[in-house]
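Structure record:
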Amino acid sequence: MNLNYIALLIVEGEKVVEILPEDVAREDKKWAPSVVVYVVGAIPSIGAMKRFIVAQGSFSAKPVVLYHSDGYFVVRFANEEERDKVLCAGPHYFLKRPVIMKPWLPEFNFKKEILTTIPIWIKLPNLPLNCWNSVVLSKIGSSLGQPLYAEECTTQASRISFARILIEMDVTRSLPKMIKIRDPKGTVLEQQIWYEWKPLYYKKCLQVAQSCDKPKEIPAKRGQGQGQRKEWKPTIMGDKNQEKQT
Protein backbone atom coordinates (compact mmCIF):
# COMPACT_ATOMS: atom_id res chain seq x y z
CA MET A 1 0.00 0.00 0.00
CA ASN A 2 1.16 3.52 -0.72
CA LEU A 3 1.51 5.92 2.21
CA ASN A 4 1.17 9.70 2.18
CA TYR A 5 2.06 12.56 4.49
CA ILE A 6 -0.97 13.79 6.46
CA ALA A 7 -0.83 16.89 8.64
CA LEU A 8 -1.30 16.05 12.31
CA LEU A 9 -3.44 17.56 15.02
CA ILE A 10 -1.57 19.85 17.42
CA VAL A 11 -2.83 19.78 21.02
CA GLU A 12 -1.08 21.99 23.58
CA GLY A 13 1.99 22.11 21.40
CA GLU A 14 2.21 18.33 20.91
CA LYS A 15 1.49 16.28 17.82
CA VAL A 16 -1.48 13.93 18.19
CA VAL A 17 -2.44 11.23 15.69
CA GLU A 18 -6.23 11.49 15.43
CA ILE A 19 -7.96 8.41 14.02
CA LEU A 20 -11.51 9.08 12.82
CA PRO A 21 -14.30 6.50 12.51
CA GLU A 22 -14.16 6.69 8.73
CA ASP A 23 -10.42 5.93 8.84
CA VAL A 24 -11.04 2.45 10.26
CA ALA A 25 -14.56 1.65 9.05
CA ARG A 26 -13.36 -0.60 6.25
CA GLU A 27 -11.02 -2.58 8.51
CA ASP A 28 -13.65 -2.86 11.25
CA LYS A 29 -15.96 -4.50 8.71
CA LYS A 30 -13.17 -6.78 7.51
CA TRP A 31 -12.33 -8.08 11.00
CA ALA A 32 -15.87 -8.15 12.43
CA PRO A 33 -16.47 -11.87 11.61
CA SER A 34 -13.39 -12.88 13.60
CA VAL A 35 -12.79 -14.67 16.89
CA VAL A 36 -9.85 -14.65 19.25
CA VAL A 37 -8.79 -18.21 20.17
CA TYR A 38 -6.62 -19.13 23.14
CA VAL A 39 -5.74 -22.67 24.26
CA VAL A 40 -5.27 -22.75 28.03
CA GLY A 41 -1.80 -23.96 28.97
CA ALA A 42 -0.47 -24.61 25.48
CA ILE A 43 0.28 -22.99 22.13
CA PRO A 44 -0.66 -25.24 19.18
CA SER A 45 1.16 -24.94 15.90
CA ILE A 46 -0.63 -22.81 13.33
CA GLY A 47 -1.22 -25.91 11.20
CA ALA A 48 -2.85 -27.73 14.11
CA MET A 49 -5.06 -24.73 14.82
CA LYS A 50 -6.14 -24.57 11.16
CA ARG A 51 -7.19 -28.21 11.28
CA PHE A 52 -8.99 -27.64 14.57
CA ILE A 53 -11.01 -24.73 13.15
CA VAL A 54 -11.85 -26.49 9.88
CA ALA A 55 -13.18 -29.46 11.88
CA GLN A 56 -15.73 -27.26 13.65
CA GLY A 57 -18.13 -27.26 10.68
CA SER A 58 -18.63 -26.47 7.01
CA PHE A 59 -17.75 -22.99 5.77
CA SER A 60 -18.47 -21.04 2.59
CA ALA A 61 -14.79 -20.08 2.50
CA LYS A 62 -11.79 -21.42 4.35
CA PRO A 63 -11.28 -19.46 7.62
CA VAL A 64 -8.09 -17.42 7.85
CA VAL A 65 -6.02 -18.39 10.91
CA LEU A 66 -3.40 -15.93 12.16
CA TYR A 67 -1.03 -16.36 15.11
CA HIS A 68 -0.05 -13.58 17.51
CA SER A 69 3.25 -13.76 19.41
CA ASP A 70 1.41 -13.25 22.72
CA GLY A 71 0.16 -16.83 22.38
CA TYR A 72 -3.28 -16.51 20.83
CA PHE A 73 -4.85 -16.81 17.39
CA VAL A 74 -7.23 -14.62 15.42
CA VAL A 75 -9.54 -16.57 13.13
CA ARG A 76 -11.45 -14.65 10.46
CA PHE A 77 -14.55 -16.26 8.96
CA ALA A 78 -16.36 -15.34 5.77
CA ASN A 79 -19.27 -13.82 7.68
CA GLU A 80 -20.59 -13.30 11.20
CA GLU A 81 -23.12 -16.13 10.88
CA GLU A 82 -20.37 -18.71 10.44
CA ARG A 83 -18.42 -17.10 13.29
CA ASP A 84 -21.42 -17.37 15.62
CA LYS A 85 -22.00 -21.04 14.71
CA VAL A 86 -18.50 -21.87 15.90
CA LEU A 87 -18.88 -19.79 19.07
CA CYS A 88 -22.18 -21.48 19.92
CA ALA A 89 -20.80 -24.98 19.30
CA GLY A 90 -18.69 -24.92 22.48
CA PRO A 91 -17.33 -25.65 24.90
CA HIS A 92 -14.25 -26.42 22.82
CA TYR A 93 -11.25 -28.55 23.79
CA PHE A 94 -7.89 -29.03 22.11
CA LEU A 95 -6.00 -32.14 23.28
CA LYS A 96 -8.17 -32.09 26.42
CA ARG A 97 -7.25 -28.46 27.11
CA PRO A 98 -10.01 -25.82 27.32
CA VAL A 99 -10.18 -23.43 24.38
CA ILE A 100 -11.25 -19.84 25.03
CA MET A 101 -13.07 -18.18 22.12
CA LYS A 102 -14.15 -14.55 22.08
CA PRO A 103 -15.57 -12.36 19.31
CA TRP A 104 -12.97 -9.91 18.08
CA LEU A 105 -13.60 -6.25 18.96
CA PRO A 106 -11.68 -3.15 17.76
CA GLU A 107 -10.59 -2.34 21.31
CA PHE A 108 -9.48 -5.92 22.03
CA ASN A 109 -6.48 -6.23 24.33
CA PHE A 110 -5.31 -9.79 24.99
CA LYS A 111 -3.59 -9.26 28.33
CA LYS A 112 -6.42 -7.17 29.77
CA GLU A 113 -9.34 -9.22 28.47
CA ILE A 114 -8.77 -12.84 27.59
CA LEU A 115 -6.95 -13.75 30.79
CA THR A 116 -9.59 -12.25 33.08
CA THR A 117 -12.91 -12.09 31.22
CA ILE A 118 -13.82 -15.42 29.65
CA PRO A 119 -16.92 -16.81 27.89
CA ILE A 120 -18.23 -19.71 29.98
CA TRP A 121 -21.10 -22.08 29.22
CA ILE A 122 -23.46 -22.53 32.16
CA LYS A 123 -26.45 -24.80 32.73
CA LEU A 124 -29.61 -23.77 34.58
CA PRO A 125 -31.16 -27.02 35.85
CA ASN A 126 -34.95 -27.17 36.32
CA LEU A 127 -35.47 -23.62 35.11
CA PRO A 128 -39.26 -23.10 34.70
CA LEU A 129 -40.22 -23.45 31.05
CA ASN A 130 -41.94 -20.06 30.94
CA CYS A 131 -38.49 -18.55 31.58
CA TRP A 132 -37.01 -19.97 28.39
CA ASN A 133 -37.01 -16.74 26.41
CA SER A 134 -34.45 -14.11 25.50
CA VAL A 135 -35.61 -11.57 28.11
CA VAL A 136 -35.49 -13.88 31.14
CA LEU A 137 -32.29 -15.63 30.06
CA SER A 138 -30.68 -12.23 29.44
CA LYS A 139 -31.65 -11.11 32.96
CA ILE A 140 -30.22 -14.30 34.47
CA GLY A 141 -27.04 -13.96 32.42
CA SER A 142 -26.69 -10.31 33.41
CA SER A 143 -26.59 -11.32 37.07
CA LEU A 144 -23.42 -13.27 36.32
CA GLY A 145 -21.72 -11.21 33.62
CA GLN A 146 -22.30 -10.30 29.99
CA PRO A 147 -24.78 -12.71 28.36
CA LEU A 148 -23.85 -13.71 24.81
CA TYR A 149 -25.87 -16.62 23.40
CA ALA A 150 -28.34 -19.37 24.23
CA GLU A 151 -27.66 -22.71 22.57
CA GLU A 152 -29.99 -24.12 19.90
CA CYS A 153 -31.56 -26.76 22.18
CA THR A 154 -32.44 -24.01 24.66
CA THR A 155 -33.73 -21.69 21.95
CA GLN A 156 -35.95 -24.42 20.50
CA ALA A 157 -36.78 -25.94 23.94
CA SER A 158 -36.00 -29.34 22.46
CA ARG A 159 -34.33 -30.47 25.69
CA ILE A 160 -36.02 -29.30 28.88
CA SER A 161 -33.85 -30.67 31.71
CA PHE A 162 -31.74 -27.51 31.75
CA ALA A 163 -31.23 -24.27 29.85
CA ARG A 164 -27.74 -23.60 28.56
CA ILE A 165 -26.32 -20.15 27.88
CA LEU A 166 -22.92 -18.59 27.17
CA ILE A 167 -21.85 -15.76 29.48
CA GLU A 168 -18.70 -13.65 29.52
CA MET A 169 -17.57 -13.69 33.15
CA ASP A 170 -14.80 -12.13 35.22
CA VAL A 171 -12.82 -15.14 36.46
CA THR A 172 -10.78 -13.05 38.90
CA ARG A 173 -13.85 -13.21 41.16
CA SER A 174 -15.47 -16.27 42.71
CA LEU A 175 -18.10 -17.85 40.46
CA PRO A 176 -21.51 -18.12 42.18
CA LYS A 177 -23.14 -21.52 42.51
CA MET A 178 -26.63 -20.07 42.93
CA ILE A 179 -28.64 -16.95 42.15
CA LYS A 180 -32.01 -15.78 43.44
CA ILE A 181 -34.95 -15.26 41.08
CA ARG A 182 -38.27 -13.61 41.96
CA ASP A 183 -41.10 -15.11 39.88
CA PRO A 184 -44.23 -13.22 38.65
CA LYS A 185 -46.09 -14.25 41.84
CA GLY A 186 -43.41 -12.69 44.05
CA THR A 187 -41.90 -15.99 45.18
CA VAL A 188 -38.12 -15.96 45.52
CA LEU A 189 -36.51 -19.08 44.05
CA GLU A 190 -32.93 -20.33 44.31
CA GLN A 191 -31.58 -21.20 40.88
CA GLN A 192 -28.55 -23.48 40.74
CA ILE A 193 -25.69 -22.67 38.37
CA TRP A 194 -23.72 -25.50 36.79
CA TYR A 195 -20.46 -24.68 35.03
CA GLU A 196 -19.24 -26.87 32.18
CA TRP A 197 -15.74 -25.60 32.85
CA LYS A 198 -14.67 -23.69 35.95
CA PRO A 199 -11.39 -21.90 35.18
CA LEU A 200 -8.73 -21.44 37.84
CA TYR A 201 -7.18 -17.98 37.99
CA TYR A 202 -3.66 -17.56 39.34
CA LYS A 203 -3.20 -14.07 40.78
CA LYS A 204 0.58 -14.43 40.99
CA CYS A 205 1.07 -14.60 37.23
CA LEU A 206 -2.35 -13.32 36.13
CA GLN A 207 -2.96 -16.49 34.15
CA VAL A 208 -5.92 -18.84 33.74
CA ALA A 209 -5.50 -22.52 34.69
CA GLN A 210 -1.81 -22.85 34.02
CA SER A 211 1.52 -22.27 35.69
CA CYS A 212 3.33 -18.96 35.50
CA ASP A 213 5.64 -20.36 32.87
CA LYS A 214 5.08 -19.64 29.20
CA PRO A 215 2.57 -22.11 27.71
CA LYS A 216 4.19 -25.06 25.99
CA GLU A 217 3.96 -25.13 22.23
CA ILE A 218 2.49 -28.43 21.07
CA PRO A 219 2.01 -29.71 17.53
CA ALA A 220 -1.18 -31.70 16.99
CA LYS A 221 -1.66 -34.58 14.63
CA ARG A 222 -4.51 -34.42 12.16
CA GLY A 223 -7.79 -35.32 13.82
CA GLN A 224 -6.59 -34.79 17.38
CA GLY A 225 -8.44 -32.44 19.68
CA GLN A 226 -11.73 -32.76 17.80
CA GLY A 227 -15.09 -33.60 19.28
CA GLN A 228 -13.82 -33.90 22.85
CA ARG A 229 -16.17 -32.89 25.64
CA LYS A 230 -14.39 -34.33 28.67
CA GLU A 231 -13.95 -32.49 31.94
CA TRP A 232 -10.57 -30.75 32.04
CA LYS A 233 -8.32 -30.71 35.10
CA PRO A 234 -5.15 -28.59 35.33
CA THR A 235 -1.84 -30.49 35.20
CA ILE A 236 1.70 -29.43 35.96
CA MET A 237 3.73 -28.63 32.86
CA GLY A 238 6.58 -31.11 32.48
CA ASP A 239 4.74 -34.03 34.07
CA LYS A 240 5.72 -37.30 32.35
CA ASN A 241 2.13 -38.38 31.78
CA GLN A 242 1.32 -35.05 30.22
CA GLU A 243 4.33 -35.23 27.94
CA LYS A 244 3.00 -38.53 26.61
CA GLN A 245 -0.36 -36.91 25.85
CA THR A 246 1.22 -33.99 24.05
Summary: Residues 23-108 form a domain with the Alpha-Beta Plaits fold (CATH 3.30.70.330).
